[in-house]
Amino acid sequence: MRSLFVCAERCRFGKSASLRKTSAFALLTGVALSSSLAVAAEPVVASDDPQTTSVTQSTTTTVTTNAPSVAVAPLPPPALAPTVIAPVPVAPPQALIAPTVIAPAPVAPPAAPAFSGSFQGPIYFNGPVWIIPAQPGGQAMVQPALPSQLPPPPVYVQPPRLYAPPSRVMASQPLSRPRPMPIISRPAPRGPVFGMGVRFTTLGIRSQEVFGEKPTLMGGGVQLRFRNQGHWGFELALDAMKSNIADGAFVRTSYPFTFAPMLYIFKNRPENHFNIYATAGFGLMASDISLYEGSRQERSQQFWEVLGQAGGGLELRFTRLALFADLRAVGMLLDQGSEPGKFYDGISSGPIAPSSIGAKANLGAMLWF
After folding, report:
1. If both were cysteines, with which of 5, 130, 217, 279 could 203 make a disulfide (CB 3.0 to 4.6 Å apart)?
2. Which domains does the chain have, with CATH numbers?
């Protein structure tokens, strides 16, 4: 472009008009040629030499200039045209196929039956029979019509199964009966099982007389009772009793120790406050006999007896405390193997008879646990 301007400046100072025209034509020709070369030429890449030499020729002048190298950027890539993707046409949904209803084929009525004679009124087909009007003085004739074509048999549709059929392995095995569930009963409430108490006791000997009196021993004792949850129990008792006849002429002190099983009518339950029991047992009894106490003839002896008893009683029990009373028959046998027993062997009038019977009564209170 600079060379073009220099050329134009020189042409302006020409003296002739022909030179001006020639210069103007050359200028236009150079501009067109430069434009075509610029479009067709490739981009110029900068070289390592800091200065390049550019030569411009014209029809009139040639100018050589030294100018710095110009770095020409590469042309931008052509813009891509946007691609428009049209949606794929979707076929419209098919219409639901309406169920086909097959109407039963019409069946022509059978031919009217043949008959003779005159009649009044029309003959018409009423379903499965022909209706013939009644004749004068007669009744209507009804003759069943035989259909020319039988109706189709009904179609049985099996309903869907709501359960899966059992497998062959399960079907081959026999069905086992369900096991009955055991009935678990709650245990009954427990009643008291152990009791201890004190009692007042008396023993009257009916088969012996001393100084014209039948000895009666009175005293007290302690007892222990044990019970199960049913009807059974047993008793351990130790008593101390004393009898004084003729102001010290005959004094007897006895210590019976007994063991007696017991049978209660009602079971041992907390709600059973009243009970009746029976008892029978055995034991040993030690006795001290003193004769003529406080005189020169005073003598003391010890005897052993084996006893058995049987009887019954009543018991009234509250939460812990119980009151009882019983009556028992007692039988006693003298042990004649000891020294005092040998002395009175075969003598019925001794301080203690070889055998005696009596009755024993007990009245007391107990604490149950």
Report:
1. 217
2. 2-68 (no CATH), 194-368 (2.40.160.20)
